[in-house]
Amino acid sequence: MGERPGGPDDVVAQLFDGAYRRLVVQLHGVCGDLTEAEEVVQEAFVRAVARGRRFAELENPEAWLRTVAVNQARSRHRRRRRGEVLHLVRERQADRPGDRSGASDAHVTLVAALRQLPAAQREAIALHHLADLPVTEVARTLGVPVGTVKARLSRGRTALAALIGDEAPVDAARATPTVRATRREDA
């Protein structure tokens, strides 16, 4: 009882092949944990399969997947905050040396710094800089006004600069440290 070629399952499979890795990298910045990022993206794909033809007919299915994954990450975060024991286990795991993602040292440093930001700022920065989404798409994904996203980005970049150090600010789009030739204010 499989789908015909070109059916909803094919759309999901093609999108999985083309977007899974990109979505995991984007959500890694939001979650601060690679395993959790993989899990929320997988959950988004499971929900896409469940939607069937309705998913295949979406105008921007990758944006839908990203929104579902961000919402899933938020839900998990809220549940984790309620359970102190789970939170302590997560902290111990995050403090262990070694990152199995294969990410560069700069990316690991960036994600560690992002983890220290408030969730709203972390989400905005990860989606705008790591996922390279325009501010309007970040606002739509998070369900907040554009001005709110701009404020979160500004505050988050300021906090990141303090966490990482002003001498080597992070170019989040490439997740590598860069040296600023002249000091300027990022808006």
Automatic annotation (TrEMBL):
<keyword id="KW-0238">DNA-binding</keyword>
<protein>
    <submittedName>
        <fullName>Sigma-70 family RNA polymerase sigma factor</fullName>
    </submittedName>
</protein>
<dbReference type="InterPro" id="IPR013249">
    <property type="entry name" value="RNA_pol_sigma70_r4_t2"/>
</dbReference>
<keyword id="KW-0805">Transcription regulation</keyword>
<dbReference type="InterPro" id="IPR007627">
    <property type="entry name" value="RNA_pol_sigma70_r2"/>
</dbReference>
<feature type="domain" description="RNA polymerase sigma factor 70 region 4 type 2">
    <location>
        <begin position="110"/>
        <end position="160"/>
    </location>
</feature>
<keyword id="KW-0804">Transcription</keyword>
<dbReference type="InterPro" id="IPR014284">
    <property type="entry name" value="RNA_pol_sigma-70_dom"/>
</dbReference>
<dbReference type="InterPro" id="IPR036388">
    <property type="entry name" value="WH-like_DNA-bd_sf"/>
</dbReference>
<dbReference type="InterPro" id="IPR013325">
    <property type="entry name" value="RNA_pol_sigma_r2"/>
</dbReference>
<dbReference type="Pfam" id="PF04542">
    <property type="entry name" value="Sigma70_r2"/>
</dbReference>
<dbReference type="InterPro" id="IPR013324">
    <property type="entry name" value="RNA_pol_sigma_r3/r4-like"/>
</dbReference>
<keyword id="KW-0731">Sigma factor</keyword>
<feature type="domain" description="RNA polymerase sigma-70 region 2">
    <location>
        <begin position="20"/>
        <end position="82"/>
    </location>
</feature>
<dbReference type="Pfam" id="PF08281">
    <property type="entry name" value="Sigma70_r4_2"/>
</dbReference>
<dbReference type="InterPro" id="IPR039425">
    <property type="entry name" value="RNA_pol_sigma-70-like"/>
</dbReference>
<comment type="similarity">
    <text>Belongs to the sigma-70 factor family. ECF subfamily.</text>
</comment>
